[in-house]
């Protein structure tokens, strides 16, 4: 009986050893004729760590409303009625984005904005202490190109959806000019400074490779420093857009975008030889644009 048990144990051990040896020889590492296992399906593949996107928009800008007062005794100017800013103006915007795991989103925006118009003044106006008589041919320029850097965190885990909250910093570069056509009358204001921002954006997928998205950047402040100035000036900005996009093919979207740009400032600024520093400037613009986005992610 002991001999039979020992024989059975020896046979079992030998079979186990032979089976393990054969399996090791048939593994892809030891046998080139055996194909390695295939890649994970797309749904289980890890996402790329970094992503990059760039967009360009082209369209038109309409001045819904724009009122300006320069100087404490200045006339409240209305750009559409006083300076014929009632046309549609070229609008362009360039955006570059960098993301980490689709959650930390860093955005850079450059938007040129320079509106020029001319008119024969329909009334007497006073600008920074200088009088422009009714009927004077005047060329007006309002330039407000800006650079914006933003960061946002996407709270959704679905790569096809987005709801992100964050902060931003905008560098304003404003130029305001009024010049008579004969060159005898001229007033100008220039202003460069930082503007803090709060931001939120989102994206919802739709059937047939469409999506809808929104983006809002804005801030309101009246405290020196926070308002982007060292003066007691009330300031506000709102840049809000709604977008309908379509994934034309891998890595490329086309979109239609409607955007509202509004804000301004009011208060006492630094005096200059030609001005006491007071200004009141509030504007409301609407843009409609088409554009394209290149995305490093498929």
Helix and strand layout, with pairings?
Layout: H1 2-25, E1 50-70, E2 77-78, H2 79-82, E3 88-100, E4 104-111, E5 114-120, E6 125-127, E7 130-132, E8 137-143, E9 146-154, E10 162-180, E11 186-205, E12 210-221, E13 233-249, E14 252-268, E15 278-295
Antiparallel strand pairs: 1-2, 1-3, 1-15, 3-4, 4-9, 5-8, 6-7, 8-10, 9-10, 10-11, 11-12, 12-13, 13-14, 14-15
Short description:
This protein has 298 residues and is mainly beta. It has helices at 2-25, 79-82; strands at residues 50-70, 77-78, 88-100, 104-111, 114-120, 125-127, 130-132, 137-143, 146-154, 162-180, 186-205, 210-221, 233-249, 252-268, 278-295.
Overview of the structural elements:
The longest helix is centred in the first third of the chain and has 24 residues, at 2-25. A hairpin with a 6-residue loop joins β1 and β2 (77-78). The model is unreliable at 1-32 and 34-45 (pLDDT under 50). Strands 1-3-4-9-10-11-12-13-14-15 form a ten-stranded antiparallel beta barrel. The protein has a two-stranded antiparallel sheet with strand order 6-7. It contains two helices and 15 strands. It has two domains: 1-38; 50-295, Lipocalin (Beta Barrel). With 298 residues, the chain is mainly β. It is 9% helix and 59% strand.
């Amino acid at each position: 009986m002991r001999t039979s048990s020992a024989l059975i144990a020896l046979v079992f051990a030998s079979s186990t050893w032979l089976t393990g040896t054969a399996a090791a020889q048939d593994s892809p590492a030891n046998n080139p004729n055996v194909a390695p296992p295939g890649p994970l399906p797309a749904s289980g593949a890890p996402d790329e760590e970094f992503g990059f996107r760039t967009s360009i928009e082209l369209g038109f800008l309409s001045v819904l409303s724009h009122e300006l007062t320069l100087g404490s005794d200045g006339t409240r100017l209305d750009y559409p009625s006083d300076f014929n800013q009632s046309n549609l103006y070229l609008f362009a915007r360039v955006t570059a984005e960098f993301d980490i795991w689709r959650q930390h989103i860093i955005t850079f925006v450059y938007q040129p904005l320079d509106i020029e118009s001319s008119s024969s003044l329909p009334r007497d106006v006073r600008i920074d202490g200088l009088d422009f008589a009714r009927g004077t041919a005047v060329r007006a320029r309002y330039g407000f190109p800006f650079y914006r850097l933003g960061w946002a965190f996407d709270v959704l885990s679905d790569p096809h959806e987005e709801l992100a909250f964050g902060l931003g910093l905008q560098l304003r570069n404003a130029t305001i000019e009024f010049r008579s056509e004969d060159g005898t009358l001229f007033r100008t204001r220039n202003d460069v400074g930082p503007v803090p921002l709060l931001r939120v954006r989102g994206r919802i997928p739709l059937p047939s490779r469409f999506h809808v998205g929104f983006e809002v950047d804005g801030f309101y402040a009246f405290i020196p420093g926070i308002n982007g100035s060292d003066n007691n000036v009330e300031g506000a900005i709102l840049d809000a857009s709604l977008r309908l996009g379509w994934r034309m093919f891998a890595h490329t979207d086309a979109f239609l975008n409607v955007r509202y740009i509004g804000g301004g400032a009011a208060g006492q600024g630094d005096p200059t030889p030609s001005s006491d520093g007071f200004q009141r400037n509030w504007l409301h613009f609407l843009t409609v644009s088409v554009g394209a986005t290149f995305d490093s992610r498929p």
